[in-house]
Amino acid sequence: MSDAPATPTAAPSAVALLRRRWQTLAAREQTAVRGLAVFIGVIAAYLLLWQPPQLALAKAEQAFNQQSRLQQQLQALPAQPRASTQAISGEALPGLITRTSSQAQLNLERMDNTPSGHIDLSLEGPLAPFIGWLAELEQQQVKVLSLSLEVSPQARAKAQLLLSGS
What we know:
166 residues; alpha+beta; four-stranded antiparallel β-sheet
């Protein structure tokens, strides 16, 4: 029997196993493993430290450029025409209707002055220009007192209107 106390043999730790394995490697193999560790360290530093800020910078530049283009487009838009504060007179209304309806490619079929100073008219033409023409009259502060509209399947509008200038 031995004089030393009996101690259970502890399993060697993972670090101790790695250290023993490292010492068994030849010097050339140790150099190769060190080189591989440096390479992996550089790649990890690139992926974890350098690449995310670069990607964020590229996204920020792209967003900035997009916002700059939108701002340039907004600045290039024409200013909204301001409606005149003065209503059109009853005497000038027939000329305005004739001029604007022909510009909108609408056929003015009939235009009559009523005793009350209103204008009763019938016209026909494509629906889209007709709607634009009504919007233009509204900007000129012409009041549409009544409107009767028939639209064909080919988007042709036939309308009877009663308009007032003041």
